[in-house]
Amino acid sequence: MNLLVTAGATREPIDPVRYLTNRSSGKMGYAIASAGAQLGHRVTLISGPTSLDIPSHVDFIPVETAQEMLEAVKLKIGGKDAAIFSAAVADYRPASVSDSKIKKTADALTLELVQNPDILGSARHQFKYDGILVGFAAETENLETNAREKLRQKECDLVVANDISKKGIGFDSDHNEVLLVYPEHTRPIPIDSKERLAHTLLQAIHELKVVGS
Ligand code: CTP
Fold it and tell me: Measured from the CA of 117, which atom of ligand 1 is nearest?
């Protein structure tokens, strides 16, 4: 298969030395890209900055901001059998970026934020993508309901839902425990290493491809 994977957190600049980001490590997305390449798939990995080694045998595209990630996805998504959106994209960015370092002058500082584009949410209509679309849902409450809502809204075939309020799984951990949320059913996957979960997910995507073809 031809796979596209987004991974890592985006970084939204405030001034030349500061930025907004989140706690995503990129480990899940890199594990998926790496497992895909090991299985002989052609993998394009579009990633925000991480401290991870670039997996071997993948087409690696580094980006920083959500807008850069959007442009890279737009360029690369055509013709992919499956697109897997595991990146933790910043929902908001500073409304303006200061060219010079913001100095400590006032007692309080208000930062105005504007919404970033929804990259996964642009796949079906804006990018006209008709392959297998896999989203992730990072939730602290109502895991399955919220994931199912994202599945419907963003027109995904599958959403991988994880509860980021649980200690020892998800963000920055080597393990995860997820629900695979499909339009008609939900499959719970017990806690496992991100490497083994990546293989489970690729198997699930393969099954979707067989059913769809
Ligand atoms: N996503 C994206 N672009 C964004 C925000 C999210 O592509 N600007 C993708 C993520 O990669 C993930 C899915 O959408 O696959 C859901 O991300 P999540 O942060 O859980 O949800 P949001 O859509 O941002 O909604 P909310 O933050 O309100 O839960």
Answer: 8
